[in-house]
Design brief:
The protein is built from 15 helices and 2 strands. The chain is an all-alpha fold. The protein is globular, with a radius of gyration of 26 Å. The relative contact order is 0.12.
């Protein structure tokens, strides 16, 4: 296969193939794989154990597998009543739907707003452009815990519709509830704070992809009669698809796993799966098997979403590699 190559290139390739890899590289690779797969394996194994086996320290293979933990976690959506349960107290189905709604909508809106803002910061010239670009990155450095008290106060007091007003009375008559109509305890309130939290990161990461899009392509499209929105949606977006997929993966995972802000802004009708897992722990009883089973169920959607988005990254990279 190397006969058609020049002599210097062929010798270099042969020397690279003949070199033996440092054993430390494989040792480091094994350690990284163990650190990544080990916790998932332990959580998977313990999800099929009873609490007695988990607390008793039974070895990984010497136990009788059971699906009781998954039945307890999914009791509100199963078509049958588990025999070991007298009452279904864990509402995983409702929390799972809340997490899906909040994560998908916040991810979609963040990408839509973020890609437009990133394009404006890269392509348009206006006063304070560099300051705005730097500020977006600095805002992302603010820990979510710092925003907890201010957001909770604003969502409960400032951004409320008084129940005495016409709109507030109509909402309460239609959907029930008491008091003023506020953002706290609603899907919209959690989605808005997730958009504000993830938007700076999306803008920052998409700027590096938009910079690599040649201006000549956009100018050629304008010469052919394309408008600004046509240039953006038909020329720029297809070329930055790997960046959009990468930003979507990080945004979805942050929105899916976030606990601190969701615990303060949600109520019993809008709580997400991370809140459900923590609420399953009490001072006197910790159902480790149910927690492990719920954790495994919590990990499935991000894995599926990451695999789907990763295909878009690979497609975009290979498409760019064969363009002349």
């Amino acid at each position: 296969m190397l006969r058609g190559l020049p002599d210097n290139i062929r010798r270099k390739v042969e020397s690279m193939n003949s070199e033996r890899q440092n054993p430390a590289f494989y040792a480091l690779l094994v350690v990284l794989i163990f650190m990544s797969v080990g916790p998932i394996y332990l959580m998977l194994v313990n999800s099929f154990k009873l609490d007695v086996d988990i607390i008793g320290g039974t070895s990984g293979l010497l136990f009788l597998p059971t699906i009781q933990n998954y039945e307890t976690a999914l009791c509100d959506i199963l078509w049958y009543e588990p025999e070991h349960l007298d009452f279904c107290s864990l509402k995983f189905g409702g929390a799972f739907i809340n997490s899906i709604i909040i994560a998908l909508i916040s991810t979609a809106l963040t990408l839509i707003i973020g890609c437009m803002a990133a394009y404006a910061l890269v392509r348009f010239r206006f006063f304070g452009r560099d300051t705005v670009s730097l500020t977006t990155l600095m805002v992302r450095m603010v820990p979510p815990a710092v925003l907890l008290v201010p957001v909770f106060g604003l969502w409960n007091n400032e951004f409320c519709i008084d129940k005495e007003t016409l709109v507030g009375a109509w909402i309460r008559d239609m959907f029930g509830g008491r008091g003023d109509v506020c953002l706290a305890g609603t899907h919209s309130g959690i989605i808005l704070i997730y958009i504000a939290m993830n938007l700076p990161f999306v803008i920052w990461i998409l700027q590096s992809f938009i910079v690599q899009v040649p201006r000549s392509l956009e100018e050629a499209a304008r010469v052919d009669g394309a408008g600004p929105f046509q240039v953006f949606f038909k020329i720029v977006l297809p070329l930055i698809k790997p960046g959009l997929a990468a930003a979507a993966i990080f945004t979805f995972r942050i929105a899916w796993n976030e606990y601190l802000l969701a615990s303060a802004l949600s109520d019993r009708n809008t709580k997400t799966v991370p809140i459900l897992i923590v609420n399953n722990m009490s001072e006197f009883n910790v159902e480790w098997g149910v927690i492990m089973a719920t954790g495994m169920l919590l990990a499935i959607p991000p894995i599926i979403f990451t695999l789907f988005a990763s295909r878009q990254i690979i497609t975009g990279m290979t498409a760019g590699a064969v363009k002349g």
